[in-house]
Specification:
The structure is a single chain. This protein has about 280 residues and is α+β, with helices and mostly antiparallel strands. It has a domain at about 15-170 and about 225-260: CNF1/YfiH-like putative cysteine hydrolases (4-Layer Sandwich). It has 8 helices and 15 strands. The protein has helices at about 30, 50-60, 135-140, 145-155, 180-190, 195-200, 210-220, 245-250, and strands at about 15-20, 25-30, 35-40, 70, 80-85, 100-105, 110-115, 120-125, 130-135, 165, 175-180, 200-205, 205-210, 230, 255-260. Strands 5-6-9-8-10-14 form a 6-stranded mixed sheet. The protein has a 4-stranded mixed sheet with strand order 3-15-7-4. A hairpin with a 2-residue loop joins strand 12 (about 200-205) and strand 13 (about 205-210).
Length: about 280
């Protein structure tokens, strides 16, 4: 099933389209077992005159009032904002300057916005805590994804091996050309050994950057199991009928949203009594 006629998309295993009252949403089947979440598509612009109305529809889809959507003023870094269950949340109190949200509170939904950068959603299958991460090249350079893994561990006792992660649509290595300054920034920040995996030379000192592989590698280095990471591998620049793209459309383009909400602590299986026997 694809949302754009004439614009076929091949979904990676574990990803599904769902129909909402505003259009198509993209979801990760593994992540759905632990947390409510979705990635929006071009059918919402989330900017301009209809922005409030569209955010209300996003909120309804995730099951919270609009004022319980937690947004950030994203600054391309690794700063974390934590929202704890039972603690006051500033509704309408401004947007913190950060790129990572972590929470165990089912009454709020976490939001990051992108128009080519990588949106990551995480959930801990043991504690129910969740995270939303914005990682462009600067955020990837800063280690935003492993910072979120560390924050979930520190704040909520999450273990990296219990995390489920979904990487949503973003610009792909097919279209993301960067200059020598970006390559040099990664080289000088300790990533020399993986430059060959993350960059493909493109002539004239430029290269194509694979943010998908870079973030997957950072997650697995942080202890997340590779089999628990789902990457859409849908390039925002390559599918104009489906996704907004800053590189393709310029500053006036809309924004995609990645939204996630904790369900609280998952129920534990009831202990089996001595007289119980497995059924065959």
């Amino acid at each position: 099933m694809t949302p754009g006629a004439g614009d076929p998309l091949v979904l990676a295993d574990g990803l599904v389209w769902t129909s909402e009252d505003w259009g198509r949403a993209l979801r990760s089947s593994p992540l759905s077992g632990t947390a409510d979440h979705f990635f929006t598509t071009r059918q919402l612009r989330l900017r301009g005159s209809n922005e409030s109305e569209e955010w209300a529809r996003v909120a309804a889809t995730i099951g919270v009032p609009p004022e319980r959507l937690v947004h950030l003023e994203q600054v391309h870094g690794r700063r974390v904002v934590t929202i704890r269950r039972g603690e006051p949340h500033r509704a309408g109190g401004g947007r913190p300057r950060a790129d990572i949200l972590v929470s165990d509170d089912p009454s709020v939904a976490l939001v990051v916005q992108v128009a080519d950068c990588v949106p990551l959603l995480m959930a801990d299958s043991r504690t129910g805590a969740v995270a939303a991460v914005h990682a462009g090249w600067r955020g990837t350079l800063a280690g935003a994804a492993p910072a979120a893994v560390a924050a979930l561990a520190e704040e909520f006792g999450a273990r990296p091996e219990d995390l489920l992660v979904a990487l949503g649509p973003s610009i792909g290595p097919c279209c993301y050309t960067v200059g020598a300054d970006v390559i040099a920034a990664f080289r000088s920040s300790g990533f020399r050994e993986v430059l060959g995996r993350w960059f493909t030379q493109d002539g004239d000192g430029k290269a194509r950057l694979d943010l998908w592989t870079a973030n997957e590698d950072q997650l697995t280095a942080a202890g997340v199991r590779a089999g628990r990471i789902t990457t859409s591998r849908l390039c925002t620049s390559s599918h104009p009928a489906v996704f907004h793209s800053y590189r393709r459309d310029g500053r006036g383009t809309g924004r995609l949203a990645a939204v996630i909400r904790s369900r609280g602590v998952p129920p534990r299986p009831s202990p089996r009594s001595p007289g119980d026997r497995p059924r065959h």
